[in-house]
Amino acid sequence: MSDPYSAADGLVRVYPARTPHGAGLVWAHGGGFAFGDLDMPEADGVARGLAAHGTTVVSVDYRLAPDPDAPAAGRAGHHYPAASDDVISAWSWTVDMADRLRIDRTRLALGGASAGGNLAAGATLRLIERGFAPLPALVVLAYPTLLAVQPAPGAALRAALDADPAADRFGPAAVLRMYENYLGGDVAGAPVAAIPGLATPDELRDFPPTLIVNGDVDELRVSAEVFAATLRTAGRDVEMLVEPGTDHGHLNRPHEGPAASRTIDLFAARLAALPAGVGTKA
C-alpha cells in the first residue's frame, strides 16, 4: 500500500491499494455519532487491511455530534445532517476522482461501522432520493445502529447479554439518548435517512446489494435484523452474518483475537468480486 494522504480539503484520507483491482470503498468509522477519528482501528486498521487486499479506501473525517457528557455551555458539535452531508460529499468527490484513484466507478462501495454504518445506509437513501448516479455497487455495514427505538432482543440474545454485562451497553435508553444527541432533539418525525431502519420496502426498492456483519452479543444487531428483513421484503440482495464470539465494535479491537481480521477478509473478498457495471443505476 502507498502511504495514505489527506484530500478534499481534509474531509477524507485516501488509502491507495497496494495492487489495485479496481474496487473502491468510501468508509465511515463509528463512535456513537459524537466520537471517533481517522486514526482509530475501526478507520485506519480497516482501511489499511482492505488496501492491502487491493481495495482503495476513502475514509471520511465527518463532522461529529456534540459530546453528550460535556457541560451544556461548552458543548460544541454538529447535528444531523452534517455528518450525512459529509459522507455524501466524500462519495461525490470519490466518484469525480475515480480515474485518478484507479477506481472503477461501477465497483465503488459505501460502508461504515456502528454509527458509521447508519451514515452509510442513510447517505445511500439520500443518493437514491436525489437520483444520483452511480449508486454504491455494494453497501458494507459492520454492526450498524439503524433504529433509535429498537425492538426487544429475542430470548437467546437477551440471555447472552445478561450473561455478559460488559456487552450489555446498548439498551433502549442509551440508544435513544445517542440518537437524540445526533439529531439535536426528539426522534419523532426524524428523516428516514437519519434512522434508516425505519425505511419502508418502497423506500428501499432501489437500495444496492448489502452486506452486514453483526456482533454476536450485541443488542444493536436487532436494528440490523429489522433493516435486513425490510430489504428482503423489498426484493433486494442482502447478506447478513454474525461474527461469532464478539460483542459490539470488534473491528476497533483487533488485539483481542482474529474476529477483526476475519471481517476485513470477508469485506475484501466481497469487494474484489464486485462485477463491473453494478453501481450505475440511479
The residue ranges in which pLDDT falls below 50 over 5 or more consecutive positions are none
Beta strand %: 15-25%
Basic shape? globular
How many beta strands in the DSSP annotation?
8
Lateral arrangement of strands in the main beta sheet: 1-2-4-3-5-6-7-8
**Whole-number radius of gyration?**
17 Å
Give me the CATH superfamily.
Alpha/Beta hydrolase fold, catalytic domain
> What's the CATH class label?
Alpha Beta
The biggest sheet, with number of strands, parallel, antiparallel or mixed sense and barrel status, is: 8 strands, mixed
Multimeric state: single chain
Into which percent range does the helicity of residues fall? 25-40%
Tell me the distance between the termini: 32 Å
Order of helices and strands: EEEHEHHEHEHHEHEH
Please, how many helices?
8
SSE-based structural type: alpha/beta
